[in-house]
Structure formats: structure tokens, C-alpha cells
């Protein structure tokens, strides 16, 4: 169960489009995982990739394209 960030605030950043939110979070999480892999991060990280991606979307760091 996801508590933070709240789904309502995430949907505001994607014009209430759940599909767009899922795709955006998935792509960003893959980018983060790939970066960690190629940097050789062996120590446990404090946040999972999907959590970090959702927090970036909520903060407005990652914004959806207008396609």
C-alpha cells in the first residue's frame, strides 16, 4: 500500500491521467535503476527506484510531455 506521496497530488501533476502517471513513473524508475547499475552502487540505497520517481513527479522535477 502506497502512503507517500499521495495519489491525489501525483494525479494533479499529470492532469488526472492515471495512465500518464504510470508510464512516467515507470520510465523514470528505469532510468534511476540503470544509472545505479552503471555506477556500480553496491550498498543498499535508502529509497527504491519507484519511490524516488514518484517523489520527483510530485515535486515537479519530472513533468509529462504534452503529446
Describe this structure as you would to a colleague.
The protein has three helices and no strands. It is mainly alpha-helical and 67 residues long. The protein has a domain at 7-36 and 48-59. The longest helix is centred in the middle third of the chain and has 22 residues, at 18-39. The chain starts with 6 loop residues before the first helix and ends in an 8-residue tail after the last helix.
Radius of gyration: 13 Å
User: What would you call the shape?
Assistant: elongated
Distance between the termini: 30 Å
Mean pLDDT: 86
What keywords describe this structure?
67 residues, 3 helices, 0% strand, mainly alpha, elongated
Produce a short descriptive summary.
This protein is 58% helix and 0% strand. The chain has 3 helices and no strands. It has helices at residues 7-12, 18-39, 49-59.
Element layout with pairings:
Layout: H1 7-12, H2 18-39, H3 49-59
Helix pairs in contact: 2-3
Amino acid at each position: 500500500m502506497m502512503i507517500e506521496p499521495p495519489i491525489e497530488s501525483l494525479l494533479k501533476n499529470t492532469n488526472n491521467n492515471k495512465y500518464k502517471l504510470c508510464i512516467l513513473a515507470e520510465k523514470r524508475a528505469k532510468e534511476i535503476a540503470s544509472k545505479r547499475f552503471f555506477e556500480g552502487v553496491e550498498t543498499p540505497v535508502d529509497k527504491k527506484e519507484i519511490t524516488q520517481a514518484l517523489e520527483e513527479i510530485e515535486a515537479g522535477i519530472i513533468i509529462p510531455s504534452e503529446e
